[in-house]
């Protein structure tokens, strides 16, 4: 840990990194919901980029990640997330 942090701050940082996979999974679930109701193609592109970033933080097979992102397959993304939960 970096110097200059109080013990309380160190615990917060430690807990954040301890729960990073849970945080990424929650953000992915939110992205699926937003992608489902999104109508703007520009916003969809941003949401898919966000989903890709979160997927890379999780234990996903590279081939599956590539397929989901290239095909922009929302159903497969949701299925993948449900397996991780």
Q: Gyration radius, to the nearest Å?
A: 16 Å
Work out the strand percent. Answer: under 5%
The CA-CA distance between the termini, in Å, is 30 Å
User: Got a strand count?
Assistant: 0
Class by alpha and beta content: mainly alpha
- Spell out the helices and strands N to C: HHHHH
Uncertain segments of ≥5 residues (pLDDT<50)?
none
Give the overall average pLDDT. Answer: 91
The domain tally reads 1
| Helix fraction by DSSP (H/I, runs of at least 4) | over 70%
Globular, elongated, flat, extended or rod-shaped: what is the shape?
A: elongated
Per DSSP, the total helix count is 5
Largest sheet: none
Write the layout of secondary structure elements.
Blueprint (H helix, E strand, L loop, with lengths): L6 H12 L1 H18 L3 H17 L4 H10 L2 H11 L1
Helix pairs in contact: 2-3, 2-5
Compact summary:
With 85 residues, this protein is mainly α.
Entry keywords:
about 80 residues, mainly alpha
Question: How does this structure look, described?
Answer:
The chain is mainly alpha-helical and 85 residues long. The chain has one domain (7-84). The protein is built from 5 helices and no strands. α2 runs antiparallel to α3 (41-57) and α2 (20-37) packs antiparallel against α5 (74-84). The two termini are 30 Å apart. The mean pLDDT is 91.
